[in-house]
Design goal:
It is a single chain. With 294 residues, the protein is an alpha+beta fold. 50% of the residues lie in helices and 21% in strands. The protein contains 13 helices and 8 strands. Strands 1, 2, 3, 4, 5, 6, 7 and 8 form an 8-stranded mixed sheet that branches. β4 (38-52) and β5 (55-60) form a beta hairpin. α5 packs antiparallel against α6, α5 (130-149) packs parallel to α7 (187-200) and α8 (208-215) crosses α9 (219-230). The longest helix has 25 residues, at 154-178. It is globular. The N and C termini lie far apart (69 Å).
């Protein structure tokens, strides 16, 4: 059995961390292995089976779990599987997690315990509800952005947001243990969170099917609820954000219109021009010129 070492996967001795999103195809598998570091897994989409310490568990969208160091495990994919994998050594958050362990709500949180007590083993896992999945995806995307871009101070921000993620998950776990699952967030709150998610990811090719799935709704139900609460359709809402950001870029950068259109999520320049004029009564070029002359 293969045992993965810290130096082969983590960024540096003084920053033992790595984050990546993986997509596994149908019937693909990850052979049994263990690792020196801790592995944190969040399942974004799909389903599969996780073989952990000799036991088999079904995993699917919304599942969150931790694999402790030196525990043998493997994966088998059903249709497909998209996961976020955070790899890190306990030392990166040792002081912070010790402090958090003094807070009552953290005591029962089974994610923290593996860092503090090596005798704790994986027994169950947390499955986030649709509202929580939206929040979780945003948290992970922020961490991934910092880690990928590596701008000034990124290590500090990665650690800070990692703590934020564990605080969020501890609350989710506490809710799962002590509150009935029927007491989930209201439809209005879920739609608000989706709207925030769309704004943050306005340039991505998000489909109606994807955002509906995030909410745990059918496409027709989501379309109806979104328009009811936001006053416009999902596409209209996203396009308004894209055009607003495009206007800001026209005034703050020297990028040409094609570059700006692509940056905000439009691959078709003619469609971008048509939509921009429809929403502003003027073409992108004339808009930029008029603002510079003003």
């Amino acid at each position: 059995m293969t045992r993965f070492q810290n130096e082969s996967y983590l960024e540096a001795y003084d920053f033992p961390f790595h984050l990546e999103q993986y997509t596994f195809k149908k019937k693909e598998s990850v052979k049994p292995h263990s690792h020196e570091f801790i592995e944190f897994v969040y399942v974004v989409e799909g389903s599969g089976r996780h073989i952990y310490a000799g036991s088999e568990y079904l995993i699917q969208e919304g599942d969150v779990f931790v694999i402790e160091p030196d525990v043998e495990h493997a994966y088998f994919v059903d249709e497909h599987l998209i996961v976020y994998n955070i790899l890190f050594a306990p030392s990166i958050l040792s002081h912070e997690l010790q402090s958090l362990s003094n807070v009552t709500s953290f005591v029962d949180f089974f994610y923290v315990e593996p860092f503090l007590r090596q005798s704790v083993h994986f027994q169950s896992h947390l499955r986030l509800n649709p509202h929580q999945r939206i929040e979780m995806k945003q948290l992970l995307d922020r961490i991934l952005s910092e880690y990928t871009e590596k701008m000034l101070g990124y290590r500090l921000l990665v650690k800070t947001r990692l703590i934020e993620m564990f605080v969020f998950l501890s609350r989710c776990y506490d809710q799962m243990l002590h509150k009935p699952m029927t007491a989930l967030a209201s439809e209005h709150k879920i739609i608000e969170r989706v709207a925030e998610f769309i704004e943050l990811h306005h340039a991505n090719p998000l489909s109606l099917a994807q955002v509906s799935q995030m909410c745990g709704m059918s496409q027709s139900a989501f379309t109806s609820r979104f328009k009811q609460y936001m006053g416009k359709t999902f596409i209209e809402f996203r396009n308004e954000i894209r055009i607003r950001i495009a206007k800001e870029l026209m005034l703050s950068t020297n990028s040409n219109i094609l570059q700006i259109a692509q940056e905000v999520g439009f691959d078709d320049l003619s469609f971008f021009n048509k939509l921009f004029k429809q929403m502003n009564g003027i073409s992108p070029g004339k808009f930029r010129k008029s603002q510079k002359e003003a």
